[in-house]
């Protein structure tokens, strides 16, 4: 059995940097690491973690679970709807269309829900200052309202207590209202819905009034124009003592045609007598007299057509003036009929509510307090504090390494 090799005597081992007996290169030996000691910067990091993370989290937890009062939520959801039905006049070839874009109305309503006007209206009806300061601000200075406060303070607190969720794609608006009493939260939600509905109705009334006002103005102008045309035609008849010159012209032309026919017959008869009888035949004299009478009558009738009964203007001019007045009256009557139909259509639209607020979620009444969301708030505060602490530590170490 081979005995184990003896340990080399002290001072006889291979020297650093030297060569072993076998001729292989020597392996440098690193100095032994010193045990880690806690330095001052480590204590500072730990102390900063306690100050920036642990202390805010502990203080927040203490406040949320001991001082923050329970709050109840009421939810309400609604959207603006536009009436799509058409009136009978529109179906037969409509004249007006009062329906508008519901998306633009929803955008207006969304801004109204965040505005001072709505806050003032609800406060006048329900006294928001008293509702949101039901818990003393000394007990809960973070979530309670500080009375009396200005309207601007109330608007700022409104943004904290009333959360608005608006989906621009579907046009749906959902609200979450917080209060220290579930009935108060439901009352606020109900009042918000009623005031929003009143605002939408006001917008619809303005749109309807604009349409009706325009149709009313058009009808008044058409009626005034028709009245003027009728007055002008009546004045013409009173001046000329002629109801319808066209009828008189037709009568006169008929009489002239008859006289022309009789004159032709008399001339033919006269020619026959002259060819078959002597010049002294009394029948020739009689027929010549008849021809002369007919010619005189024709001349008189043509003179009648040349001048009116009043003798101041040509009969043809009177006919032209009458036709112009009659045309004006006919056009005015047609315009009045169209304006009257447009006004009736606009008035029928006004009787029908073209825009209205439809609630898909009625104001709810909460039975359990779920707010403030203590776990969520504490988690967010802790996470934010940790991220701030990490950024500060990283910046500090970065500056230390640059030195």
From TrEMBL:
Carries keyword Cell wall biogenesis/degradation? no
Asked if the record carries the keyword Transmembrane, the reply is: yes
* Region named Disordered: 1-34
Q: Provide the Gene Ontology terms for cellular component.
A: plasma membrane
Give coiled-coil spans as residue ranges: 219-276
Query: Which sequence ranges are marked TM in the entry?
Result: 43-65, 375-399
| InterPro entries for this protein | Bact_polysacc_biosynth/exp (IPR050445)
Q: Where is the composition biased (Low complexity)?
A: 8-26
Keywords, comma-separated and alphabetical: Coiled coil, Membrane, Transmembrane, Transmembrane helix
Citing just one GO molecular function, the answer is: protein tyrosine kinase activity
Q: Which PANTHER family match?
A: FERRIC ENTEROBACTIN TRANSPORT PROTEIN FEPE, TYROSINE-PROTEIN KINASE
Protein name, UniProt field = Capsule biosynthesis protein
């Amino acid at each position: 059995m081979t005995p184990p090799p003896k340990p080399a005597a002290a001072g006889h081992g291979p020297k650093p940097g030297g060569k072993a007996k076998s001729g292989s290169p020597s392996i440098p030996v690193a100095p032994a690491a010193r045990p880690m000691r806690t330095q001052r910067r480590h204590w500072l990091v730990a102390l900063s973690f306690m100050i920036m993370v642990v202390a805010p989290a502990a203080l927040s937890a203490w406040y949320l679970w001991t001082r923050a009062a329970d709050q109840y939520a009421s939810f309400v959801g609604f959207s603006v709807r536009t009436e799509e039905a058409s009136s009978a006049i529109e179906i037969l070839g409509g004249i007006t269309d009062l329906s508008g874009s519901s998306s633009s109305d929803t955008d207006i309503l969304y801004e109204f829900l965040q505005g001072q006007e709505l806050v003032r209206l609800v406060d006048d009806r329900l006294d928001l200052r008293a509702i949101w300061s039901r818990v003393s601000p000394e007990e809960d200075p973070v979530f309670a309202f500080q009375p009396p406060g200005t309207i601007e303070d109330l608007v700022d607190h409104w943004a904290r207590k009333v959360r608005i969720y608006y989906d621009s794609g579907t046009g749906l608006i959902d609200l979450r209202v917080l209060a220290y009493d579930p009935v108060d939260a439901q009352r606020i939600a109900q009042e918000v819905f009623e005031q929003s509905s009143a605002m939408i109705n006001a917008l619809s009334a303005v749109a309807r009034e604009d349409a009706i006002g325009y149709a009313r103005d058009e009808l008044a102008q058409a009626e005034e124009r028709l009245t003027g045309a009728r007055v002008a035609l009546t004045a013409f008849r009173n001046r000329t003592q002629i109801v319808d010159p066209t009828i008189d012209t037709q009568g006169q032309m008929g009489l002239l045609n008859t006289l022309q026919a009789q004159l032709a017959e008399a001339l033919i008869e006269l020619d026959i007598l002259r060819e078959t009888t002597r010049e002294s035949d009394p029948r020739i004299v009689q027929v010549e007299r008849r021809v002369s009478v007919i010619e005189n009558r024709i001349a008189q009738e043509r003179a009648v057509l040349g001048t009116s009964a009043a003798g101041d203007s040509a009969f043809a001019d009177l006919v032209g003036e009458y036709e112009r007045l009659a045309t004006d009256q006919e056009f005015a009557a047609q315009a009045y009929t169209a304006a009257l139909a447009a006004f009736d259509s606009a008035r029928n639209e006004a009787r029908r509510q073209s825009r209205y607020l439809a609630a898909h979620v009625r104001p709810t009444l909460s039975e359990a307090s779920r707010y403030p969301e203590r776990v969520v708030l504490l988690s967010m505060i802790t996470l934010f504090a940790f991220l701030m602490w990490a950024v500060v530590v990283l910046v500090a170490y970065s500056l230390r390494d640059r030195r």
